[in-house]
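User: Can you help me understand a structure? I only have the sequence.
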Amino acid sequence: MPTSVATSLVLVVGIGALAGVLSGGRIADRLLGGGRVNARALVPTVCMLMVPVFLAPAIYANSLAVALPLLAGGAMLLAATNPPLGAARLDILPPLIWGTG
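Assistant: Let's start by predicting it. Here is the structure, written out as tokens:
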């Protein structure tokens, strides 16, 4: 595989990860606003349970056209776990020690 193709793949997977970071926190906040108290733990749990569903077929795929969307989806799910977990950590700490926790 040429270097330009590999670089393009990294870019697409990175865009998927960026989409995951942006959407993970929004989904958790929307669920929390709707009255779901465990939303900041539920969203990362569901995302982590879905990661093997996307990444396992991507590893075994013989076609780049099949593997690329699966890798981007897996990266999106992995990245979507970080914002809700960070917000949950801040929920636990008192506001005066947020910078040290």
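Now, to help you interpret it: Helices lie at 3-33, 39-60, 64-80, 82-92. The chain has one domain: 3-89. Let me know which part you'd like to focus on.
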